[in-house]
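Continuing the series of single-chain predictions for the mutant panel. This is the parent chain; the variants come on the following pages.
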Amino acid sequence: MAGSVSELVAWLADGARSAPEAADVLKKLCEDLLACGIPLWRVGIFVRTLHPDVFGRSFVWRVGTDVVVRTAPHAITTTDEYIKSPIVTVYETAKPVRYRLTSPAAEGEIPFLTEMRADGVTDYVAVPLVFTDGSLHCATWSTRNPGGFTDTHFAAIQCILPAFARVAEIRALQRTAGNLLDTYVGNNAGPRILAGQIRRGHAEKMHAAIWLSDMRGFTALSDRLPAETVVDVLNRYFECQVPAVRDHGGEVLKFMGDGMLAIFPAASDNSDLDEVCGRVLSAARDARSKVASLSQESGAEYGQPLRFGLALHVGEVLYGNIGAPGRLDFTCIGPAVNLAARLEKVAARLGRTVIASAKFAEQSPAEMEELGEFEVAGFAAVQTAYGLRDEAGTSAAATA
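Parent structure:
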């Protein structure tokens, strides 16, 4: 058995490269330990992560099944299930805990151990996984073997832990990097950066539908309300838009105070532009509805209705790294983006929520109506603006 366990340690030390995903690493590890004579029944790995919405991830393997991966929100740390978990004891003490479940249950036994007994578990061990930064994570091992784990079994598990912790840390760091880039720069820009597009000036041309929105009356609102309340307003307001954009295939590139820039990539030959613009309009209606609901719910609390303006355009943008040495921004620029920004101001003047350029309106003529020609700053030619037909006759506050 020792030789086989040594081979498994060597595989882990080499980065477990034959297992592309974290779940694959755990599955192979458990199945190989089982083949080595370690009577495993259930193994759980719990890794805390750096993510604004997610406290951590769990990977649970059982004999004869695939690994089940779950994410836990930060709110889990306030639940009895978590607080009374053996995992918390490991986090607090940095030491292993072991429960031999062959003897009768003690009074007040935590529900999780009662569940393990009901599943026939005879021995349950939770041990710390220590990453190189000193952070503590946890691995749990359980068996149905009569009498539980022997000293030999436990020694084999301990033997693989250091190498396994290194692999777990590498995979966790890779995922954390992806999560943070996805959160801060966008769901398409993040993978591009990780793939090596990090040089200043590294940019590419892209055809896209452009979304540029702005909250109405934000200057007055931020002057009147406490700073903490303004932050809450912005967070709730952007929550009305971001999921709508992402759910319909768009990418949010940046927030500019109360403004938001997003793009919906299209094929280089614009062959799918009708479909892309259809998704954009669906997202726009979704966001409009959510902002209206937020205004109805909290507008009185904030002292004014919550309204926004949204400009839509299609065109070619330059998408990539822009900035100075040591500080870059992955964004898009170009005349198409500038025109969208100017059209948003037209939306405010007309009291419209959604306004579109002539190029965007060409893709959805049945849903758009012409609003007239307007001079826009920075463009020699007048621009024809279009609005959604279902907004005809409406009027919204146009102060910015």
